[in-house]
Each structure stands twice: as C-alpha cells, then as structure tokens.
Amino acid sequence: MVTKMESILAILLIIAIIISGSGLYYIADLDSRMARLEEAIGAVPAPTEFYLRFSGWGAGATEIELYETMLHNFMEENPKYYVKYEPMPTMYHENLLSMFGAYVAPDVFYVDSMWVPTFLEKGALYPVEELTTPEFIDMYYDFLLEIFKDAEGKLYGLPKDWSMLFLLYNKKLFADAGLTEPPDTWAKLLEYSEKIADTTGKPGLSIYTGGFERYLPVALSEGAPKPIFNSAADAAWFERTDVKDTLKWYVELYTKGKTEREAARLTPYVVSPADIGKGWLGDAFGSESVAMVISGNWIIPFLADEFPDFEFGTDWDIAPVPKGSWGRANMAFTVCLGINRYTKYPSAAWHLVEYLMGVEGQKKLVVEMGHTLPSIEELATSPDLWPQHRKTLDYLTTPGYDVVMAWFMGPKSGELGGKFSTAIELAMLGEVTVDDALTEMYNAVVDAFAE
Amino acid sequence: MTPSLFSNLKSLFEKKSRREAIEGYLLIAAGTSVILFFSIFVMLYAFYLSFFSWDFLTPMKFVGVENYVKVFEEIWDGICGGSPFRTQFFIGIKNVLFYTAIVVPTQTILAIILAVFANQKIKGISFYKVSYFLPSVTCSVIIALIFVWLFQKEGLINYFLSSMIPGFAPNWMRDVHYALWAIMLVAIWGTSGNLMISFLAALQALPQEVYEAASIDGAGRFKKFFYITLPLLKPMIGYSVVVGTIGCLQMFDLAYAMPGPGFSTTTVVQNIYNTCFAESKVGLACAKSFFLFAVIFAITYAMRRKFRYETT
Q1: Do B25 and B120 belong to one domain?
Q2: Which residues in chain A touch residue B86, judged by CB atoms under 8 angstroms apart?
Q3: Looking at chain A from residue 182 to 221, which residues have their Cβ under 8 Å from any Cβ of chain B?
Q4: Do β-strands A329-339 and A403-406 pair in parallel, antiparallel, or remain unpaired?
Q5: How far is B152 from chain A (nearest CA, A)?
Q6: Average pLDDT in chain A
Q7: Chain B residues contacting A, CB < 8 Å?
Q8: Per-residue DSSP letters for B240-283?
Q9: How far is residue B237 from each of residues B110, B143, B163, B201, B210, measured CA to CA in Å?
Q10: Does some domain include residue B74?
Q11: Do B28 and B169 belong to one domain?
C-alpha cells in the first residue's frame, strides 16, 4: 500500500521532473528556441517589419539622450523599423558575451578595439563588406579599419569615432613656475613636472599607475616597434633594450616622482588621480590639482561640461605628445559598431549602422557634440568640429607623428592589456622590480598562446 | 503501478485532511519550483558545465575532468610560489582565508559586546539599536563607495588616525598592505549590527532564574557574563560563526567596489567571475565554483561537528 507521505512525495517528484525537464528542454533545444524567440520578438510591434536592438555603453546622460533622439528620427523616417536602445553602462563586454551565450545579444552593438579579436575569433560579427559598397567603406580612415579586419582581410565593423592622445597643460601653473612653453620631449616633461612641484607646490604631472597604452608612446618614440603579438615568439618584444629602458623610465616617473619625493617630505611631482582623491585624469586636471596630464579626446567634452569656468585657450591648452630620441609617437583609440552574426535582418541592421555612422549621423553624434574625433575623413574639415579637437587633429601634420599605433595588440589584445597594466602598476607601487614586471609580461604573452 | 497510484490519489482527495495537505503542497509549489529551477537546477547545470570547455559563443566541448585538473594545477603552482599572474585563484583563496580569519571572530565578538550594551535598560536605547543596525539595511556597494572616500589619504579616517598615532596615515586603497584591511574594517562595521540583533534576541530569551540564582550566590557582572551568558549563547555563537564564515569565503561585492592595487584584494569569487566573464572560460569557472563549494562544505561541516560536541 502506498502511504500518504509517499503519495505526496510522488506528486512533488512529478512537479520537479516537469519543471526540471522543461528547463533541460529549454537549454537543450537552442535552435528552435531561438527561432521561437525571434518570432516572438518580431511579432511584438505589429506594424513594423524590422525589430532591431541596439546596445552601447552610453557615456553619460547627454549621449544617451542624443542616441534616443537619433533613433526616434530614424524610426520616423523609416516606419517599417522599430529600434530598441539598450545602453549598458557597466561591464559592457562581459554582459554582451553572456547575452551571446543566452542567444539574446542585440542586433547592433559597440565593440571596443581591444575586444574585437575576441568577438572575431568566435564568429560573433557579421562581415559588413557583404552589406555595403567599397565607396562607403573608403570614407573611413584606413588605419582604423585595419583593426576590424580578420586574418584574411575581411572587414567586420566600422569605427564609430576615434581619439588620440595629447598633452594638456595648465597655463596658470606654468606661468607660476616661470614656464612659457609646454614640454616637447620626455626629458623636458620630467624636468617641468619637477620644477612646477618645487615652485607651485602642486604636482606637475598626473599619470595612471598601470596603463600599458599610456606607456607605449614612450617606447615607440625611442624606436621600439609596435607590440603586436601573434605568437609566443613575439614575447621577445619585452627583451628589447629600448623597451626595458623606457619601461624603467616610465615606472620611475612614479617611484621617484611620488614615492621617493614623499619619503623625503617633498611635494611629489608625479601623482596618480587616486593619490589626490580624484576619479580619473579629467578630474585631476579640471580641478587644477595638477599641471599636466596626457589624455585623449574624450577628456574635452568632460572638461567643458564639468569645469565650464576652466577655459580652453586662456586657462589651459593642448600640446602634442612629447617626442623621444627616435621620433614622436601617438596612440589611436576606437570603437566599432558591429552587427550580430545571428541577426535576423542583416541588411536592416546595416541600414541603421549607415544612418548612425554615415556622414550625417557622425556629424550630429560626434562632431557637433564635441564628443571625440570623426572616423570619416571628410568630416575632419567640418566647420562644426570643436577647436580643441581641431587642434589635436592638426598635430597629425605639424609637428606630425612618426607613428600612430591603433590600440590593438593582435588576437589576445583584451587578455594581455589587463595583465600588462597590472604588471606596470605593481612595479610602480614598488611591489615588484621593473625586471620582474618585464618577465611577467613576457610570460603573459607565452601563456596566452600556449593554450 | 500507475492504477494503484491513481486510485491512491483518488482516495487521497476524498479525505478532507489529505485534501488540506494537498492544498498546502500546491500552495508552496510555486515557491518550491522557483527554488528547484533557479537554485537546484542551476547548480546541477553548473556542475554539468564544469566538464565542458565553453566560451559563450562557440559550441561546448566535453573535456572531462580537465577543468578540475587546471584548478589543482593553479593551486599547486601557487603553493610552490609561482607567478601571481598565473595563480590568481590561489591568491584569492589565500586572501579570503585571511579575511575570514580576521573578520569572523571580530564581528562576532563585537556583536556580542554591542548586544550586551543594547540589552541594558537605559534611556534612548532604541536609538543605539537602530544606529548599529542601519549599516545592515544599506546596500554594501554604496557603503563601499562612501568608505573609499573616507579611506582616502587625506580622508576622515586618516584625519582621526593621525591625531591618535602621529605619522600614521596610510593610503589605504592604494597600498597593497592596507587595502584588504580597509575592506575588512568595512565588512566588520557592516555586519556587526546585523549579528547584534540576533545576539540581542538570544540574550532576551535567556532564562532569568539562572541570573537570579547567581546573584544570590554573589556573582558579579563579569562573572555572570563569562560563566552564564557566554556558555548559554554558545549555539548562537556557533550559528553566527558558521554563517559568517560562509559569507566571508564568498566575498565579492566589497572587493569589487573597493579594488586595491594589483592582486591585494582579489577574492576567490572575483577570480571565478573574471574567469567566466573576462576570460570567457565558463567551464573552468564552474569547476572553480565547485572547488569553492567543497572548501566551504568541509569547513562548515567541521565547525558544525565542533560546536555540536561542545554544546551537548
């Protein structure tokens, strides 16, 4: 005879099996689930034909609002489209990857240049060449397009904008220290920082502890080649004398300029933003806590928004990145607008990308907003380009950069970038020696290609 | 089997008391199924995933126990003094064990002291109770953000510290030797109030006769506390140590919101998170999770046995 308890347990067991079974079915039956999901999504806005989801990290309320207006206009002009904007402010790429895992990734999304190889390797991006004409692609800077190509040279995304580095200096603090010109060499940068600290009592320069990409202009300007890692053998980059010497110099900026100076009870001439209670270089410079920072075009709208009284031209100015004994080097940072490989409507998604990133779209989103630099070459001469941005662009011709490296180090970029920066940070904090840091970076490359 | 079960179900429904029981189970079915799916099923699925190599985007590949082998290799490498860049999981374990060893005893002792104070009949005691308890109802990430500000080199904490100990003003969040200590202080501050409420409830449930008898025997306040209160609180202490240990070993939020330089504040769960989302090694992350589960299970089991022996 079956007891009462057994009956109840049997019922519970049946419920559990049904629930777990449906769960397993849910996981196991991916293809048909995706089809059903797409069907369901496609069916939501009844009158529209193309339902698209668009995602980016959304830098601030102004940018989000602007995108919403742009998308609203796009939908008015194209009644068959419905675009849902889904900004993800934190842990963007991590979220995006797990969305891919759950088959719910957006149709159009940002990918940072460092993360492009990860997405390419896994076949997550749609080859945009198949959706557009060569003339459209030709409008963009070639050196930016290179990052978004696979080994066969096939293009998987277009740069939505770009930025490069430059020196920002506080004119008031320079005058107080008796300096008239911004430093033009790395040696002068160090000399001026010290002089400003000694005369004004404020640190001359702010840098991040870590930040491999901020160190690279120093290495490249002393003659090191671009660090592109395609195999374990490329780790040899860290064995070069110019790399060793420049890294030592860069680390000593902090160990000598901050740690040793504080031990001697002197004003440090180099600090990190965190040392002076600031979130990032923009805060440190805008609040006039330091005299110089080397940052990118993204700092310009921030300074205009947050420190409106700190005026460009009168209070602060821009100068080219200092040069080394070999020449002058700079970094270029860019983000691509990619299309999901599994999107149901590739050409509709392309239509949206074209709208946002074409001449008109970039003009509104990038140029007029003073956001960063336009990735379409002809917009560089637009009269709407902010004077600060214009000035940074002009440095490409005078004094000119001997090398501009797009921030990208080959197929393992994302993974390596973080490890290199941690190694530099530990060396700056005096936890490891510069030689140890170099060994760790060498090993990181070997490990990355060992798997 | 089927007909007998069916007839049984029928008879089950016929009896009123059984019907009530069924109704009861149906009522909890909603909650139970949520737990079954979102906890039990998800856990089992993570265990299943730990035998696969998966990066979210390409198809899963069965690799057997390879992920577990990697976990043990990383730990062994760490024990042998391997590079910190290759042994972050081991560093996480080391950090978290140290963190637990400091935080759990401190927060428990502090909670008992606070509870004893809160148990006094003095005016305005509710105010103190509320102030001790407030941190527990505040989001830990917000607490962390406020403390990052307080822990600055020129911050409020150093302002008081340097007035007490001249020349002592560490740059808490930027110094590898202090960053983890800063997180510990926040954790202790945040959880003691919560534990205090549990201890207060336990204190108020203690039998008064024992105290009265002790008073007649001439026991003073301290004797009463050490020979009566503490032994009687033992089950509660055991509970809070076990729960606190589990919580500490799984610490993530504070380390995420208050990151120290280098690997000084890396925790196990943070490393699992990075393995999964930053490196997209889902299988390896699941294997690490189950390793952590085994560690927590072993420690909890050992503690439970210890406290059971001592209380019986």
Answers
A1: no
A2: 443, 447
A3: 209
A4: parallel
A5: 6
A6: 88
A7: 4-5, 8-9, 12, 18, 21-22, 25, 29, 32-33, 36-37, 40-41, 45, 54-58, 83, 85-86, 149, 152-155, 171, 173-176, 261-263, 277-280, 282
A8: HHHHHHHHHHT--HHHHHSPPSTTTT--HHHHHHIIIIIS--HH
A9: 12, 26, 36, 12, 20
A10: no
A11: no
Q: Which of A341, A429, A439 best probes binding to B when mutated, by most B CB atoms within 10 angstroms?
A: A429
Domain that holds residue B184: 88-311
Q: What is the DSSP letter of A322?
A: P
**Any B CB within 8 A of A242 CB:** no
The number of folded domains in chain B is 2
The CA distance from B250 to B98, in Å, is: 13
Interface check A415 vs B, CB under 8 A: yes
Residues B45 and B92 in one domain: no
Q: Which residues of A fall within a CB distance of 8 Å from B54?
A: 101
Peptide bond into A399 cis (omega under 30): yes
Give me the CATH number covering residue B296: 1.10.3720.10
**Does a structural domain hold residue B61?**
no
Chain segment B262-310, per-residue pLDDT in tens: 888 999 999 999 888 878 889 999 999 999 999 999 998 888 887 765 5
The ranges of chain A with pLDDT < 50 are 43-46
Could you report the per-residue pLDDT of A193-251, keeping only the tens digit for each? Answer: 999 999 999 999 999 998 999 999 999 999 999 999 999 999 999 999 999 999 999 99
Per the domain annotation, does B68 fall within a domain? no
User: Tokens 């040069």 label which residue?
Assistant: A323
Q: Are residues B205 and B255 in the same domain?
A: yes
- Whether residues B244 and B119 share a domain: the answer is yes
Q: Report chain B's mean pLDDT, rounded to a whole number.
A: 86
> Do residues B23 and B97 both lie within one domain?
no
Q: A401 is written with which tokens?
A: 């950069």
State whether residue A444 sits within 8 Å of chain B by CB. yes
The pLDDT, as a whole number, for residue B280 is 82
| Closest-CA residue to A193 (of A180, A209, A177, A208) | A177
At A45 the pLDDT is 46
DSSP code at position B139 = -
CB contact under 8 A, A11 and B25: yes
Residue B232 falls within a domain, yes or no? Answer: yes
Chain A and chain B share a number of CB contacts under 8 A equal to 100
- For residue B57, the chain A residues in CB contact (below 8 A) are 97, 100-101, 119, 122-124
- For Cα atoms A44, A47, A51, give the angle at the middle one, nearest 5 degrees: 50
Q: Does A94 touch chain B (CB under 8 A)?
A: yes
Domains of chain A, first to last: 33-161+334-385 (3.40.190.10), 163-332+388-450 (3.40.190.10)
Secondary element (H or E) of residue A62: helix A60-77
Residues of A in contact with B69 (CB under 8 A): none
Model ipTM value: 0.72
Q: Where are the alpha helices (DSSP H) in A177-266?
A: 186-200, 212-221, 241-254, 261-263
- Claim to verify: residue B255 and residue B180 sit in the same structural domain: yes
Query: Which residue from B minimizes the CA distance to A23?
Result: B37
| Whether residues B306 and B256 fall in one domain | yes
